[in-house]
């Protein structure tokens, strides 16, 4: 990192290095390592985009519609930075204006409870009375052989109804939910190849049971107006093959009150885009991702005081360069599993990202950063924005060119009521970006006034699409 932006600093203890990351007053550092004087920065362009799609905190003139904002953003030249575009775009899509224009959603039907009690048997119908024929008058006696009288047939009583069978509890769990969807829904015309439920349990070594990784991790928290939902679940292909979950999720908190920090760390090794190294076992990947997440969380905890102050003040440059140092060092265990051959310029599959939230209710920003593949998406009034790349997702006029991959990505996002900030590993980031039906499914379920519960959040991020069977790991922040 000493080659980018600022000169190298002498060695300092880890517990107090944050205030001396770079020389010079806060705010004088360039946003990019080789930015020319006077050029708009990436973050300035991003701030402009955010303003185009959202309610500004100050008075402003009449805002254009979302398509107009997208056309203006796509027509702009290099004069504005990514953050300028982002801040301007957020101001266009006002939550209040969207509520006035859109009709009120219909109330969801109430869920019909599935009862496991035996229903009372219906009473058997009463048998119809037998009408006996009237006796005929006796004939006069004759010398004839008497015929045997015909027997009188009485109707047999109906058999008792068989007792109803008790429903299987496993079928009750898979019964349709209140919103009418399946327990694990899927989008598209054809269902995915693998089933939605776990099939095989990973094989274990009796001497290394401490290294076992659970199928699913689910976390949740609420501090003031910020509501966190996070989940990591084994992919359909890993469940079918009996492989462990490779993604890792770590949610923790350092400190309390205005100086406290809430963070969610996501790690993984992307398996898309090339042949997988057979020498790297799934168990080794799971161990490396867990170690990388712990290293990054430890480094953040040691620098909590400086990070909390910079996040509260919106010190973008200090956060960018300081967090880059932390993320690059913590990703070493993952990079060791994906060594690149000499001359190979392809991006590394190692993925390590973090969502950082201040516990100060007056803090106006959240920070997201990371290395490698992954996605940071902002949902405002039903519109998805790729926050890392500062572009609208699924533009009606076609998909704009995607910026090239960067070794380190960082974004400082304003905490606006009604916004949803989603950080996810490649297993969920890719279908959101490539399959409009997946993005629409999530925006539809998350458009309600209140955040979903933890179990509902898990079910929603598991939305299945054919061709996307990797682990699903995500952390989302609702701002109420």
Q: Can you give a write-up of this model?
A:
Helix 7 (282-302) packs antiparallel against helix 9 (316-330) and helix 11 crosses helix 12. The strands form three sheets. The protein has a seven-stranded antiparallel beta sheet, covered by helices on one side. The protein contains 13 helices and 14 strands. Strand 8 (375-380) and strand 9 form a beta hairpin. With 480 residues, it is α+β, with helices and mostly antiparallel strands. It is globular, with a radius of gyration of 32 Å.
Q: What characteristics describe this protein?
A:
five-stranded antiparallel sheet; 27% helix; globular
Detail the topology: elements first, then pairings.
Layout: H1 42-52, H2 66-75, H3 82-92, H4 95-101, H5 169-173, E1 186-187, E2 216-223, E3 226-233, H6 236-241, E4 248-254, E5 261-269, H7 282-302, H8 304-313, H9 316-330, H10 332-337, E6 350-358, E7 365-371, E8 375-380, E9 383-386, E10 391-392, E11 408-414, E12 420-424, H11 426-434, H12 436-445, H13 454-461, E13 464-465, E14 472-479
Parallel strand pairs: 1-13
Antiparallel strand pairs: 2-3, 3-14, 4-5, 5-6, 6-7, 7-11, 8-9, 8-12, 9-10, 12-14
What would you say about this model in short?
The protein contains 13 helices and 14 strands. With 480 residues, it is of the alpha+beta class.
Number of contiguous helices: 13
Encode the helix/strand succession as letters.
HHHHHEEEHEEHHHHEEEEEEEHHHEE
Beta-strand content: 15-25%
Q: Classify the secondary structure makeup into a structural class.
A: alpha+beta
Uncertain residue segments: 1-9, 22-38, 55-64, 69-79, 164-181
Number of strands: 14
Strand order of the largest sheet: 2-3-14-12-8-9-10
Q: What is the rounded distance between the termini? A: 37 Å
**What radius of gyration results from the CA coordinates?**
32 Å
Main sheet?
Answer: 7 strands, antiparallel
Range of helix content: 25-40%
Please state the average pLDDT score. 75
- Estimate the global geometry from the Cα principal axes: globular
């Amino acid at each position: 990192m000493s080659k980018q932006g600022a000169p190298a600093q002498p060695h300092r203890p880890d517990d107090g290095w944050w205030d001396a990351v770079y020389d010079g007053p806060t705010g004088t550092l360039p946003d990019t390592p080789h930015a020319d004087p006077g050029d708009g920065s990436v973050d300035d362009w991003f701030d402009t985009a955010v303003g185009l799609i959202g309610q500004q905190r100050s008075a402003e003139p009449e805002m254009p519609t979302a398509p107009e904002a997208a056309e203006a953003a796509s027509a702009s030249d290099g004069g504005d930075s990514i953050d300028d575009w982002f801040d301007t775009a957020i101001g266009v899509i006002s939550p209040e204006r969207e509520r006035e224009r859109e009709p009120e959603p219909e109330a969801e039907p109430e869920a019909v409870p599935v009862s496991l009690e035996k229903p009372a048997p219906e009473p058997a119908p009463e048998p119809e009375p037998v009408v006996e024929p009237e006796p005929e008058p006796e004939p006069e006696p004759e010398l004839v052989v008497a015929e045997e009288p015909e027997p009188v047939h009485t109707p047999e009583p109906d058999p008792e109804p068989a007792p109803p069978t008790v429903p299987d509890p496993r079928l009750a769990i898979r019964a349709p939910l209140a919103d009418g969807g399946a327990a694990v829904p899927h989008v598209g015309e054809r269902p995915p190849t693998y089933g939605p439920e776990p099939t095989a349990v990973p094989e274990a070594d009796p001497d290394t049971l401490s290294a076992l990784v659970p199928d699913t991790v689910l976390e949740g928290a609420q501090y003031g107006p910020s509501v966190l939902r996070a989940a990591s679940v084994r992919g359909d292909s890993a469940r079918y093959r009996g492989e462990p979950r490779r993604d890792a999720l770590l949610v923790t908190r350092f400190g309390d009150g205005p100086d406290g920090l809430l963070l969610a760390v996501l790690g993984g090794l992307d398996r898309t885009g090339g042949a997988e190294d057979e020498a790297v076992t799934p168990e080794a990947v799971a161990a490396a991702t867990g170690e990388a997440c712990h290293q990054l969380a430890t480094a953040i905890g040691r620098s909590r005081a400086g990070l909390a102050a910079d996040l509260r003040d919106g010190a973008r440059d200090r956060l960018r360069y300081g967090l880059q140092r932390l993320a690059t060092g913590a990703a070493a265990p993952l990079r060791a599993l994906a060594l690149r051959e000499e001359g190979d310029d392809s991006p590394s599959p190692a993925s390590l990202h973090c969502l950082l939230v201040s516990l100060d209710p007056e803090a106006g920003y959240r920070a997201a950063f990371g290395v490698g593949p992954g996605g940071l998406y902002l949902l405002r009034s039903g519109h998805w924005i790729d926050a890392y790349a500062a572009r609208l997702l699924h533009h009606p006029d076609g998909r704009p060119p995607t910026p090239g991959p960067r070794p380190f990505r960082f974004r400082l996002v304003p905490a606006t009521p009604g916004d949803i900030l989603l950080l996810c590993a490649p297993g969920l980031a890719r279908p959101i970006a490539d399959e409009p039906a997946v993005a629409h499914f999530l925006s539809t379920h998350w458009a309600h006034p209140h955040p979903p519960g933890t179990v509902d959040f898990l079910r929603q991020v598991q939305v299945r699409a054919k061709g996307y069977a990797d682990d699903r790991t995500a952390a989302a922040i609702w701002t109420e």
